[in-house]
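Example record used in the benchmark description.
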Amino acid sequence: MKLEIERMFQAAGFPEVAICRLGEVYGPAGRIMREIAGRLRSGFCPWPGDGEVPVSLVHVEDAAEALVLACERAAPGCRIYNAGDDEPATWRQFLDAIAALLGTRRALHLPEPAARGYAVCASWVDRLLGRPEAVTPHVLRLLTTPKVLSSARLREQLGFAPRYPAFHSGLREALAGL
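Model output (structure tokens):
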């Protein structure tokens, strides 16, 4: 759907549109950090698949900087920029680093069919308890689909210089806010 919306903007010929495709955003008090840290601290953090799905992460401060740069400096026309850190990682690397910093057990990687079954059960429990659903089919798709972005255009054309060029550099700070 996002690609279709981008195509609509391009086809419409708007004089000034800057589209930013963000990596997986993490940072202090962010939902992804709260979810992962909470599950790891509970001793049970199920994760779909083997965790070897590559992903570009982006610290929330760097994501905000990318958006500001795109608004202030993008050339006229419909411009598309990717914003991610300079060193894509796998979900396993990200989760293992969080577990190490928290001093908890590592995430449990579930075969995808088992993860889908877990997601259905977890959604039922969340609904029964009146909580927002944490694991939905959409979330499972996101966690099992590679998402590697190059920020080269953003750096070259707009001067983007991420404060946190790799998730390791921003992870301790992101966890401190929890």
